[in-house]
Each structure stands twice: as structure tokens, then as C-alpha cells.
Amino acid sequence: KIIVNKEAALKAGFVTTGQHEFVHAIFWNTLKADPERRRVVGEQVMKILNSKGVTFSSPRKMREFNKRIRGENGEEIMAVASEMMIDGDIKFNDGVLQKLKNFWTKF
User: Fold this and answer.
1) Which of 57, 44, 59 is nearest to 85 (CA)?
2) Along the 107 residues of the chain, how does pLDDT read in single tens digits?
3) 87 and 16 in contact (C-beta within 8 Å)?
4) E-assigned strands of the chain?
5) pTM, whole model, 2 decimals?
6) What's the rounded Cα separation, in Å, for the pair 71 and 68?
7) CA distance 29 to 9
8) What's the CA gap between 46 and 17, in Å, rounded?
9) Lower CB density within 10 Å: C or N end of the chain?
């Protein structure tokens, strides 16, 4: 069960909080809270996100992304990236999306 404090999220300006938490739920169930798997996911996702084909809507949004994911695990990195993708702050070309798909298929 996912519980989101809508009032607090909207007050803070986060309209995609429900989606962000849903991504956490998916990854929690997939990774089973295994620290090693979370580390591997984080490394691989960052490798893909640092490749060509990932663009941010502005340098400020790229700094925001990097600040939000600093020291985080793969689950949080994917949640933040997906949230920013929904908001239009980060865009992935087809090659990047295929790399993400391939990674998850193998995982």
C-alpha cells in the first residue's frame, strides 16, 4: 500500500510524488531490499544516464538531478529520473531507453 500526503507534496511543489513512490514500490519488490542488488542497479543506471542521449531541459535541472541522487541507491536514482522524465526535465533518446530495457531484461 502506498500512502502519499497529497497536501504536503503539493505544498512543496511536488506534483509527481505518487508516481515517484510507485516507482519505489516496483523496485522494492524487484530488488527485495538487497543492498548488493541496489548497488549494482545504481551503478548500471548511472552508467546509462551518463551516456550520450540523455538531455536535461536546463543546466539547473541537471544540477538538481545530480544533487538529488548524490549518495543514493539505484532505486532512488530511477525514481528521481522517472519523476523528472514525467515533468519534462530529462529526456532519453531511443538508444538510452533501449539500454535501460536491456539492463532490466537481464536483471
Assistant:
1) 57
2) 545 455 654 455 554 566 767 766 777 777 777 778 878 887 888 888 888 999 999 999 999 999 988 887 777 888 888 888 888 999 989 888 888 888 777 76
3) yes
4) 54-56, 90-92
5) 0.66
6) 9
7) 24
8) 22
9) N
